[in-house]
């Protein structure tokens, strides 16, 4: 019994995706007979039946499920090896998947990504905006190659590279008609007990504000939480409508104040929060990810 060719693994995976020998053949540009022969060869190699016919097409057997896991591991390993070789010897190409929390996604990344795309036209940058917990989980699970987040509190694996890339001040935002609206500076004691618009539990901003409050022996329970919302923009909207106050990143606050939506008061001890870049230890396309990572770090080091 001869060993199967590498191309047979790709054929097997395509049959699984299409649930059909004929559709797999069409997708691969080969004949249905060739697909059947290659699957038969794999079944002889594994000494097991890998597919069963159903009214909808074909489905994996239990043995086929085991074979699929092994075959996908082999295919993915080879693709990663190809990308690593390309990173050494060729112009970066492929796709880099970036998950970012809302503040970096709205205020830090856009200009940098535009410059990167201009410099590396063969790399596609796919951006997904969510909260810091989700973005971190995307890197940990392999659903993203790079994440930009507002806290490193959700990183649970040492193999993920974590680099602080920027920092900024946390400031208090208030409705324009609030009694403290004209104050340039406030203490934490000035705002304790106020109605407060909070971010959701996975937010980096929420986590960093929580750490700041804890340093003063306080917590969110010392405020009247009136809302929990899913983005910085939603916080600004609620505050501008008089729902309460909040503490957010200075960049976002300044833009909203310039638009006349809210007023800013700086906290007297000038708390700062960091933004972090995370890199997966198993990127989808190594050359694209490495190029984006190095570009990102260079960009922010130059601005710090």
Automatic annotation (TrEMBL):
Residues 4-61 form the HTH lysR-type domain. PROSITE patterns: HTH_LYSR (PS50931). GO terms for molecular function: DNA-binding transcription factor activity; transcription cis-regulatory region binding. Keywords: DNA-binding, Transcription, Transcription regulation. InterPro entries: LysR-like_Sec_metab, LysR_HTH_N, LysR_subst-bd, WH-like_DNA-bd_sf, WH_DNA-bd_sf. Belongs to the LysR transcriptional regulatory family. This is LysR family transcriptional regulator. It comes from the Archaea. It comes from Methanopyrus kandleri.
